[in-house]
Amino acid sequence: MPKVLSYSEQRAREATLLLREVLRELPPVCADFFRAIEPTTRPLTRYVYACDLKLFFRFLADEVPRYADMAPSAWTADAIGTVTARDISMYLDFLTLYIKDDAEITNAELGKMRKLSTLRTFYKYLFKNSLIKADVSLLVDMPKRHEKSIIRLEIDEVARLLDLVESGEPFSEQQKRYNRHIRQRDLAILTLFLGTGIRVSELVGLDIGDLDFELGGFLVTRKGGNQAVLYFPDEVSEVLQDYIRERTQIEAKPGHENALFLSLQNRRISVRAVQVMVKKYATFAAPLKKHLSPHKLRSTFGTNLYHETGDIYVVADVLGHSDVNTTRRHYAAMSDDRRRLAARMVKLRDDPKPAQKASRQPKGPPDALAIEEAATGPERASAEDAPSGSDVAPIQEAGVNPGEVSPQSMPISSDDSE
User: Are residues 130 and 159 in the same domain?
Assistant: First the structure.
């Protein structure tokens, strides 16, 4: 009986086979490069690298005259050494918009950064092994990444999203009949995203045996192949148990018996299917927030967790970020909001300055009181000028009113520790 592979093992096997196909269209030296990085990379990473290199050599053959129509087999290490930093800069510009299979492909900063990173890894290997005289990829600046605000759901939008799944209110009668077959599954998926911050690639790889309701958690395979236990609250546990009772009644297709979430074809659900499902419900729950995706639901969880704990390291650990700076970059804006709130809570004096008071008085002819004050001189002292010990209440220390919180008494988050 053949061994039943886990989802991550199946993905690794598929990526390995795809990599071998792409290698046939790459220069021979690339095969040595992929063997060299195999111990430190995963099959899917190597496959993505191969696709990036294939696109790079295709660009050189199609867009750079001196390499016109150069076949992959003709690219020796010496030929690769003739590529200049200007060629690579032109490649990054090419990535902004190009045609592939009659379709327009675009790359923003993140896509360009990843493809340049692939080239740098490749050139580093060639230079380290003395196959080229210089690493020209280092002469090309990495594209600047422009930070974007976090798109997330508010509390009322989260409640509306889950209510929509249960009721199916905005859908037609035909859609409601269709949704009845997948309602419990969809509710379980959305609840997992919002209650644990799991990645979509991790969610589709879950097996029934990964759940432990006594422990209150499940085993997940993280990016990079590491495994970790994520814990879920009681609300998520109840939804999952309701779904498990329904899932055990479904006979999955061979090879998909262990999958936790199934498609209507009784196969393990795909990442694309989950993305379409999230968008379907989010369109009605939060119509003003475009392009909502599973990752945005993960951001919603991360934001809520950071608001509750104020600990960036806890958020990084739960979300599975290997570098806390990744988490800090995404959620630093919330720390800025807290600092702005602190600034608004501090007052230096109860009333505006006398000059400010005067500037706010309506202009017009002087009244009798003003004439009298001008005649008698500055014998009248304002409350602000009263000496200590007088009946006038002094300005409160540090300018903080009773019941208000000073910056010193506010909890310091880990963001402020640097």
Answer: no
Of 56, 369, 165, which Cα lies nearest the Cα of 48?
Answer: 56
- Please check whether residues 162 and 304 belong to one and the same domain: yes
Residue 336, C-beta contacts closer than 8 angstroms, at least 6 positions apart: none
Average pLDDT for 3-8: 78
DSSP string, 134-199: --GGGGSPPPPPPP-PPP---HHHHHHHHHHHHH-TTS-HHHHHHHTTTHHHHHHHHHHHHHH---
Domain that holds residue 399: 354-409
Q: Which residue, among 37, 22, 28, has the nearest Cα to 120 in the 3D structure?
A: 37
In the chain, the number of structural domains is 3
In this structure, what are the phi and psi dihedrals at residue 105, rounded to the nearest 5 degrees? -115, 130
Task: Report residue 265 as tokens.
Answer: 């074809």
Domain stop point among 115, 139, 163: 139
This prediction's pTM: 0.71
My answer on whether 118 and 46 are in the same domain is yes
By residue count, the chain amounts to 418
Sign of CA dihedral 123, 129, 132, 133: positive
pLDDT, tens digit, 9 for 90 and up, residues 248-289: 999 999 889 999 999 999 999 999 999 999 998 988 888 888
Say how far apart CA 19 and CA 22 lie, in whole Å. Answer: 5
Whether residue 393 sits in one domain with residue 358: yes
Name beta bridge partners: 217: 212, 231
**Whether the Cβ atoms of residue 171 and residue 186 lie closer than 8 Å to each other:** no
The token pair that represents 252 in the structure block: 């999955």
- 69 shares its domain with 122: yes
Distance of CA 212 to the CA centre of its chain: 27
